[in-house]
Design brief:
Blueprint: H1 13-29, H2 33-40, H3 44-51, H4 59-69, H5 74-83, H6 116-126, E1 137-142, H7 149-158, E2 168-172, H8 183-193, H9 205-216, E3 222-228, H10 231-234, E4 245-250, E5 261-264, H11 270-281, H12 283-288, H13 290-300, H14 304-315, H15 322-330, H16 332-338, E6 340-341, E7 344-345, H17 346-355, H18 368-375, E8 382-384, H19 385-392, H20 396-408, E9 413-416, E10 419-421, H21 424-437, H22 440-462, H23 489-512, H24 517-533, H25 536-549, H26 556-569, H27 573-590, H28 593-609, H29 613-628, H30 633-649, H31 653-669, H32 673-689, H33 693-709, H34 713-729, H35 733-750, H36 754-763
Parallel strand pairs: 1-4, 1-5, 2-3, 3-4
Antiparallel strand pairs: 6-7, 8-10, 9-10
Helix pairs in contact: 1-5, 2-3, 4-5, 6-7, 8-9, 11-14, 13-15, 18-21, 19-20, 19-22, 22-23, 22-24, 23-24, 23-25, 24-25, 24-26, 25-26, 26-27, 26-28, 27-28, 28-29, 28-30, 29-30, 30-31, 30-32, 31-32, 32-33, 32-34, 33-34, 34-35, 35-36
Length: about 775
């Protein structure tokens, strides 16, 4: 039984036949009124009236519908003309057929998601204006395979139907698969579609191109050229009249297409990817497992093809949970296997892009295909030119040309002139290629080159951070080509900031692959950076991984000590205690007297954090006495300054002040600015605890600029918090709030839990002043 209502009795027979066929088409295509609205851009209310015979169906609406469905609409348009009450005709006269221009755009995706700004920008760009004498408007949309270029072009084209009523061409140039279509072949088809008899089509490409320009002159046509190989394939297909517009898509950037407005598609934003996923899977399943959905979308990396495939797999398996799919995608080695549904696969799309790379000729040096595979060995998404040169084992100039070629092929993205990014799924694919192309020894050698270069670069940066960095020799381990150096601390910090995630990725890689001393030395070269910037999570992970990899080696205890300090900064003293005790056992076993002193001081610091002051103080006194008897001034200043903290936390504030003053005198005598700023912070804290507010303010206000001068932003933030405490104790609440707010901003940006405690202070700042000096200590 039909759900349609009866049509009005007095409806014109031709109109009745048209409506009945439109109803049958809607039912056959399973189209809702909302989908009709999206396909044709006529409102669902209009379609409701038309399909119920309440208003005559317009020719424009029927044309938009058949175009949207990509079907031959001659019959419906003929019926529409016969049903038009404004079209005079004699009784019994035959209805003349309606001339239908090319309407070749594929159907729009009903679940197209995101890209709204790009769609509107392209629509505005391609709208006609200025008459036939204006230049042809061309837009070239480029992007990685699977990024959604064709879907975007179709969506834009459908929004331009009314602007180009003489027709819309759609041509798949097959530029990324097999043998691209020749311009001559494409032109022959275009000419036939424009009504040119087959016998009149000239044989030469140039003549066909000229004839195409003649036939399109003055006509309002939209031409979509999908999947272009390069600019040379496109040029002969361009009309000469400004009444036409051309939209080109390609997996390559097309800088050689003169006059074209380039649009490069990036991955979907998280909200857009979620919208696409939910439109396929259903909102209910998304709401049921939000964390698993986020995990799946993370593995898809915002690539629309990957999101659609993952969602389609779930939609076809109602018994699966989203978490089950997330578990399958979690394994990088299986990820591309999982992103495959029927005849659509992410790997296949990537392989066609890779196959389009020109192979290296004999004697021409390395080719982009080999470079792409090697870059899959890089453990992260982003890398710079010098790191790539080390990995590829090529000079900078050659590497730059290879990376530019891969960028033009949309297999890399240029973040800046010397910095590049590879999509995570592409990196998985590239690593598969490396496994195919290279032997295990070749892959290991490439990874050793990469870690060796990062060791060298971190060494070069580390020696610019502090006045007297600890010396860990890198001879025989580091790779010093290509060369890199930094004029000063600012440049070194900027490089380490950019490379922070890459350095940690390289350490993980080196430890997992057993690449030896480079894995142990890179964290040691970065310890001052971690300290200055407060990246304690990275610090802990890098040092703990390296310590495990260096088991039984000379540097094992150094790495354990670094791990302990990082864990203390993360407020994880119980874990720190375990590692400190392991280190002490190793030092005693190996008879390392000087290192034993450091281990003793460190163990005391851990016990202090655990509030076991009676155990901590004797150990610190032992360490102080040992360093006073030696000649290592740097360690002496450090241990005396830190002993001040133990006295402070034990409530022995006079002794804390005395130790701070002793350490400060030593630091100033030996020009140790790094220590001077921290020790002034210790001194200010002790003075505040003793009620000496002016002295506390003096020491703390002196400490902050020194710490900032040497780049120790984490130390400056810690001192700024205590400075706020001192200002409040002085009754200067507004300035205290400003100091706390500054400290909170830094801690929040660093992800430190201390930000929460400072927010509580800010909330209570209007309460009566109280003894608040124990909030924390600079470490």
């Amino acid at each position: 039984m039909s759900y349609w209502t009866e049509l009005p009795e007095g409806l014109d027979p031709a109109q009745r036949q048209l409506v009945e066929e439109l109803r049958a088409l809607k039912d056959g295509q399973r189209l809702s009124l909302n989908q009709l609205e999206r396909l044709t851009h006529y409102s669902r209310a209009s379609w409701h009236r038309w399909l119920n015979g309440q208003r005559p169906v317009t020719v424009e609406a029927v044309r938009a519908l058949v175009t949207g469905l990509g079907m031959d609409g001659a019959r419906l348009l003929t019926l529409c003309a016969g049903a038009d009450p404004a079209a005079p005709r004699q009784a019994g006269a035959a209805v003349a057929p309606v001339a239908v221009g090319p309407a070749q755009l594929p159907a729009d995706l009903p679940d197209f998601a995101g890209r709204q700004r790009v769609v509107e920008d392209l629509r505005e760009l391609l709208r006609p204006g200025g008459g036939p004498s204006r230049p042809v408007v061309i837009s070239a949309v480029s992007g990685l395979g699977g990024i959604g270029k064709t879907a975007l072009a179709v969506r834009v084209g459908r929004r331009l139907l009314a602007d180009y009523p003489d027709g819309q061409f759609y041509v798949n140039l097959r530029g990324s698969v097999g043998i691209p279509r020749s311009a001559a072949e494409v032109l022959a088809g275009l000419l036939r579609d424009l009504g040119e008899p087959a016998g009149a089509i000239p044989p030469e490409e140039d003549a066909r191109s000229a004839r195409f320009r003649s036939l399109t002159s003055g006509r309002r046509l939209l031409i979509v050229l999908d999947d272009a190989r390069d600019a040379a394939q496109v040029r002969p297909l361009l009309p000469g009249s400004g009444s036409c517009a051309v939209l080109v898509t390609s997996r390559r950037r097309l800088p050689g297409l003169a006059g074209a407005v380039p649009v490069h598609l990036d991955v979907l934003e998280p909200a857009e990817a979620l919208e696409l996923f939910a439109s396929v899977v259903g909102a209910e399943r998304v709401r049921a497992e939000p964390a698993a959905v986020e995990e799946v979308l993370g593995y898809c990396g915002g690539l629309p093809l990957a999101v659609r495939i993952a969602a389609s797999r779930l939609a076809s398996r109602p018994g699966w949970t989203v978490a089950a799919l997330a578990g399958r995608l979690a394994d990088e080695r299986r990820r591309l296997d999982e992103l495959n549904v029927e005849d659509v696969a992410v790997r296949a799309v990537f392989r066609t892009s890779f196959a389009a790379l020109a192979p290296a000729g004999p004697g021409s040096g390395p080719g982009p295909a080999r470079a792409f595979g090697l870059l899959g060995l890089f453990p992260g998404q982003e890398f710079d030119l010098r790191a790539a040169a080390a990995l590829l084992d090529e000079p900078l100039g050659t590497t730059d040309r290879l990376l530019e070629t891969l960028t033009d092929a949309c297999l890399l993205e240029a973040v800046s002139a010397e910095r590049f990014r590879m999509h995570d799924l592409l990196r998985v694919f590239a690593e598969e290629l490396a496994d195919e192309q290279l032997s295990a020894d070749q892959r290991a050698a490439a990874r050793r080159r990469l870690t060796g270069w990062y060791l060298y670069a971190c060494h070069q940066a580390g020696r610019r951070l502090v006045a007297a960095p600890r010396d860990y020799p890198i001879d025989g381990v580091a790779r010093c080509e290509p060369a890199i150096d930094f004029p000063g601390q600012r440049e070194a910090l900027a490089w380490l900031d950019r490379e922070r995630s890459a350095v940690l990725d390289v350490v993980r890689l080196a430890c997992a692959d057993g690449l030896g001393a480079a894995a142990w030395l890179i964290p040691l070269k970065c310890v001052d950076y971690y300290h200055l910037r407060g990246h304690s999570e990275d610090w802990a992970e890098a040092f703990m991984a390296a310590a495990a990899a260096a088991r039984g080696q000379e540097l094992e205890t150094h790495l354990l000590h670094g791990s302990v300090i990082a864990l203390l900064r993360l407020r994880r003293p119980a874990e720190a205690l375990v590692l400190a005790q392991v280190s002490m056992g190793l030092l005693r076993e190996r008879g390392k007297h000087e290192s034993l002193l450091k281990g003793t001081a460190l163990l005391a610091e851990v016990l202090c954090d655990l509030r076991r002051y009676e155990e901590a103080l004797p150990l610190y006194e032992e360490a102080v006495a040992g360093y006073r008897a030696g000649d290592d001034v740097v360690e002496l200043v450090g241990v005396v300054g830190n002993s001040a903290l133990i006295f402070y936390n034990a409530g022995r504030h006079e002794e804390a002040r005395a130790r701070s003053q002793e350490a400060l005198e030593l630091a100033r005598e030996h020009g140790m600015r790094f220590h001077e700023g921290l020790i002034l912070g210790h001194l200010g804290q002790a003075e505040l605890a003793l009620g000496h507010v002016p002295q506390a303010l003096g020491a703390l206000s002196e400490a902050v600029p020194i710490l900032r001068e040497i780049g120790n932003e984490s130390g400056a933030a810690e001192v700024m918090e205590v400075y706020g405490n001192a200002l409040r104790a002085a009754g200067r609440t507004d300035r205290a709030r400003a100091a706390w707010a500054e400290a909170e901003q830094w801690f929040a940006a660093a992800g430190s839990p201390r930000a929460v405690a400072i927010r509580a202070k800010l909330a209570a700042a209007d309460q009566p002043a109280a003894a608040d000096h124990r909030a924390g200590h600079p470490a």
